[in-house]
Amino acid sequence: MESKELGEMVRSLFASQGLAVLATQSAAGPHTSLVAFAATEDLHHIVFATERDTRKYANLAADPRVALLVDDRSHREADLAEATAVTAGGRAEEAAGEEKKHLLKLLLRRHPALQGFVASPGCAILRVTVEAYSVVTRFQEVPELRP
User: Fold this and answer.
1) SS3 83
2) C-alpha dihedral (109, 114, 116, 120), degrees to nearest 10
3) Is 99 exposed, middle or buried (0-12, 13-18, 19+ CB in 10 A)?
């Protein structure tokens, strides 16, 4: 599958799904959480928000490597053969300044209900710089896209 086609597949999946599973790690081990996310049009970055007093934020401060999983499961037996799942691997960093404003607009366009949450002084806007997308379709086909 060509990069352009893979990119469109990722964009389409992201447009249909509002939540991702974020995987972080610490000395105590791996940790996952659900996050509302948005991606930049070029797929180079994924943005999400979290409070600074969470385990995920502490894990990211200690080790910025992350994986985000987005899929289109519908909890049917057919999902095993038909579902699409995308894992974005990269590094997360808290956004600041003009970049934070830009990414916050992107996130709120996608998730307007987060307005009150992101207005909290303890809330951080995180930018994941994606190194690669692993796209799983039809159970065993796993092409990779590098933005």
Assistant:
1) coil
2) -100
3) middle
Dist CA 36 CA 22 (whole Å): 10
Between CA 110 and CA 37 the distance in angstroms is 8
Identity at 52, one-letter amino acid code: R
DSSP string, 24-77: EEETTEEEEEEEEEEE-TTSSEEEEEEETTSHHHHHHHH--EEEEEEE---SST
Q: What is the pTM of this model?
A: 0.88
**Coil, helix or strand at residue 108:** helix
Residues 6+ apart with CB under 8 A from 110: 18, 36, 37, 38
CA distance 110 to 46: 12
Question: What is the helix (H) or strand (E) element at residue 135, kind and residue range?
Answer: strand 123-136
pLDDT tens-digit readout, 15-38? 999 999 999 999 999 999 999 999
Neighbours of 45 (CB within 10 A): 22
Complete domains list, the chain, with CATH: 3-145 (2.30.110.10)
Residue 66 near residue 90 (C-beta atoms within 8 A): yes
